[in-house]
Amino acid sequence: VQCCCFSPGKSTLVFAGTPVGSVVLWDLREHASSHYRLKIGEAEWTFRHPTFSTDAVMSGSGHVSPVTSLEVVPSFVAGGLRPEVPLLTSEEESSGLSLELASLDESGVLNFWVVVELPKGNEAGSPTDLGLRPGGKVKLLHSSSLLAVQSPSLKHAAKTRPFQTLLLKYRPTDSNQFFIGTNLGLVSHGTSHGLKAPPQFYRFQEVEERTVDISSIHFCPFSPNLFLVGCADGSIRLHLVSHDQPVAEWMNSTAGEPVISLQWAQTRPAVFCVLDAASNLHIWDLLKDDAHPVITEKITADRVTAMAVFGDSGQQNTYSGIALAYESGKIELQHFTQTLTVPNPAEEGKLESIMAEVF
Q1: Which residue ranges traverse the bilayer (predicted)?
Q2: What global pTM score does this model have?
């Protein structure tokens, strides 16, 4: 598995992409008894086979390069909910799952899949759905594909490195607009259908090209026109959707360590968190300091491999914080102190002033 995500809302499905170009899904509602179980020490482990795999059955329409990113397509377009697509023929009534999944491979091909739930599984297997596990009830139907990113015409610096697409993100308020992180420090901007939306690429402030991987992209939950970009050279950029140059750029905040993940806080517009490859957690509060993180926590006992910020922007409570996943398999929840969770009326003005300084 190279990349994975849950189904939205109820986390009953897991989707994943592999280095051989297949897209697989697991239906977590399947009973453990129908899967392989193994006792290791005192614990019994269940090893689940995928419910559905595109491996070898989608030769005409799948991926031929490693799948680098998967996202569930947001269910609304700019201006309102997306019109419901009739997904199934009458003899194949769906039981309510209506999801679209997008998978990106490193050559820039973006495939779209409709997730279909069948009324019942067949233990004997299906003679037509060769990718469906016997007894499985959820499958993928290929709906369309497009070459999402044309290789940019770049100067000498980037010609030494083959162009690759690494990361897919959707604009949370518009399922037509996608953003793709590349290995040349550029974020590509595209649309699934209709007119192209400018700018085509988001870049560093300086003109010189830099061959650096984009490792993380996250949209601001309070202002969907703002997004953060983290890079493998440790640099962090704050972009406005309408401009190719960043409104802010921080080059040395991780002492050159690659950014693994960055995410905005869910209850405060001026706070975001950055995890770097040396297991340092950096917390920024732009209201207090717009040049450096206000907290840097070095975690030494066990390396942190991933993080997720939690909280509910719709609730006026202070229940927010960060979940950390450790190399040993441990997951830890840390709650933010009140200063990092209670919104401040000056925050949105601070973000606006950062944007105004640039334009």
Answers
A1: none
A2: 0.88
